Amino acid sequence: MNNRIIIFLTSLLLPFFVKAQEAAGVEMADAFRSEGKIYVVITVISIIFICLIGYLVYIDMKLRKLENKNRNTN
Amino acid sequence: MIKWWKILAALLILYTLVWGMLGPVPQLNILHETIRNLFYHVPIWFAMLFQMGYSVIFAIKQLSKNDLQSDIISNQAAQTGLFFALPGLLTGCMWAKFTWGTWWTFQDPKLNGVAIAVLIYLAYFILRSSIDDEQKRARIAAVYNVFAFVMMFVFIMILPRLTDSLHPGNGGNPAFGKYDLDSNMRLVFYPAVIGWVLLSLWILDVKKRLAILTHKENEQ
Amino acid sequence: MQNNQLVNLINKEFVLEFRQKSTLAGILVYIVATVFISALSFKKIIHPTVWNALFWTIFMFISVNVSSKSFMQETKGKGLYNYLYYNPRTFILSKIMYNMMLMAVLSILTFFFYSWFVGSMVQDMGMFLLALVFSSSAFSGILSLMSAIASKANNNISLMAILSFPVLMPLLLVSVKLSKHAIDGLAWSVSYKYLLILIMLNFVVVALATLLFNYLWKE
């Protein structure tokens, strides 16, 4: 839940840099994103994802322990 | 320790998260940068379809072998598939709002197909909860699973035909399906699909093991 | 031998139906009542799409109602007798065929009452009737299997409705499309593929139902 708030707040920062945009062809985010703001986004979503995977691994380990205990007592 | 394919799933998705945002994409009108959504929104649907297919296969197995293990797997796969439908729907609505201007439309056949699929599987869970006897529940739920999946599949096959007459040409609008993938995007898209399908299998694996453990405990 | 059994079973269904005229009369009253209420609420239906949508909604509810009665009548004793005596495939085929005939008749009756009360907007009557007949047979096929499932799960009628509606929706969509073409009076070449899809759905539904019923049977 906290992570979502963080990414939401970060994404709110990005529109402030739209003023630097030029109308060259189809407007893409390249002009202002590549200045380094994009890396913030990437870091944020990677952190979120790694935390989720970490949680999944934790559950996986716990289950394995339970299964082994079950197998030993049977 | 952890199986190789689980690690592969995590690595693939991490790769698509990073490169999907950084990599070059074709510059299309209407979509602008949101075309990157392709790497995240579409693989979730692939994962859901995969899970539903998995569920049906085990439903058929349950009917032919009559062992409760297949039924547990079939049930958990249906749950996982429905679980993936939720972010799929939410991300789809977000994407639609910004590109089509509306959260939902009844004209798009894909959205209809998705809505029907969700309703079918909700009915499947209601059916499961209304029968108490394990063997009976397994069998009857499997029958409904097979029937409903075939009907859904037939419908999804009909959709392309219907779209021929409903939507003659969709311009560059990607959510309507077949359009030419830029070769750069393929580099991220295919790994994304594989990664998310593997992740859904990981979630299924964990759920299945938990269900089997709880089942064994209840028996004792 | 099997064909004989099939004919016997279908005959039995007809006899039962006419013996208990109450069910048939009940359905007729249901049809007339629903159509009447709709006619009262929509004082005048101008747009063909509305006409179409209303007709198929009424049709859907009627078909669910009718089919729910077919399996709910089976008591435990009858169930045992059926199991021992009849081949499951024959049994479900007889139920499906009987339901199909019943639904075809009822659908035409519904259309008759509907056009009487609300007015008919159909320009291509032939195509419309074709659509009606094939849709009603596919509906009855699906609903027969659904009511068989629901009857095994404590005979709950609302459960049957919940199970049937999502599965019926693709069929409904195709039927609505086809009948809309008929109402607008489009050439048959346009509607051809929908008709084919409808017929194919019929085959798929009946094949699936007969295959799957074996597994429901063992109770």
Task: Describe the structure concisely.
The complex is a heterotrimer of chains A (74), B (220) and C (219). Chain B is an all-alpha fold and 220 residues long.
Oligomer: heterotrimer
Largest beta-sheet details of chain A: none
Largest interface: B-C, 28 and 32 residues
The low-confidence runs of chain C, each spanning 5 or more residues with pLDDT under 50, are none
DSSP strand content of chain C: under 5%
Q: How many β-strand runs of chain A?
A: 0
Helical fraction of chain A equals over 70%
Q: What is the radius of gyration of chain A?
A: 21 Å
Beta-strand percentage range of chain A: under 5%
Describe this structure in words.
The complex is a heterotrimer of chains A (74), B (220) and C (219). Chain A is built from 2 helices and no strands. Chain A is mostly helical and 74 residues long. In chain A, helix 1 (2-13) runs antiparallel to helix 2. Chain B has 220 residues and is mostly helical. Chain B has 6 helices and no strands. The two termini of chain B are 29 Å apart. Chain C is an all-alpha fold. Chain C has 8 helices and no strands. Chain C has helices spanning 2-19, 21-41, 48-72, 76-85, 88-117, 125-152, 157-184, 188-217. The longest helix of chain C is centred in the middle third of the chain and has 30 residues, at 88-117. The mean pLDDT of chain C is 80.
List its salient traits.
heterotrimer; A: 74 residues; mainly alpha; B: 220 residues; globular
Fold blueprint:
The complex is a heterotrimer of chains A (74), B (220) and C (219).
Chain A (H helix, E strand, L loop, with lengths): L1 H12 L16 H44 L1
Helix pairs in contact in A: 1-2
Chain B lengths: L3 H19 L15 H28 L2 H32 L9 H22 L3 H33 L16 H37 L1
Helix pairs in contact in B: 1-6, 2-3, 2-5, 2-6, 3-4, 3-5, 3-6, 4-5
Chain C lengths: L1 H18 L1 H21 L6 H25 L3 H10 L2 H30 L7 H28 L4 H28 L3 H30 L2
